[in-house]
Amino acid sequence: MERLKLRFTDLNKALKTLKDILEEKYSIIVRDATIQRFEYTFEAFWKYVREYLKEKEGIYCNSPKRCFRELFSIGVFNTEETITQLLEMVDARNMTSHTYKEEIAQLLYNKVETYYKLMEEIVLKLKII
Question: Where are the domains of the chain?
Fold first, then answer.
């Protein structure tokens, strides 16, 4: 349980930094910082989900997509749209190493706010403290 609380704390810190950068005026530097913050927030998010599933549900999963599918299977959310967005977010995270390509960077930046809201919504449903 202590590990789950630590993951929760880390995730909330990461979400706050992502929220802060999303409030900044657009520039290339802000765009790139937003993508970087999305990247580490995503990592904190899926690792929290993994730990939550292990501790609270006895479900073991070792990849983001598998963990998100498990959330769906236990009814944390019940729409196909949500699982689709989560799986799309995994693909977006995987594209962050290609942000040297202007079109990919812009595409990712344009989606980050949606992903932020999705992560916040799910964290509220899984809140442990």
Answer: 2-126
**Cβ atoms within 10 Å, residue 109:** 20
* Architecture of the domain delimited by 2-126: Up-down Bundle (1.20)
Please tell me the distance from the alpha carbon of residue 104 to that of residue 82, in angstroms, as a whole number.
23
Of the candidates 122, 119, 115, which has an alpha carbon nearest to the alpha carbon of residue 75? 122
DSSP state of 74: T
Rounded to whole angstroms, how far apart are CA atoms 67 and 69?
5
Distance from CA of residue 65 to its chain's centroid?
11
Lookup: tokens for 48: 């929290």
Nearest-5° Cα angle at 78, 81 to 112? 40
Share of the chain above pLDDT 90, in %: 86
| pTM listed for this prediction | 0.93
Average the pLDDT over 58-75 and give the result: 95
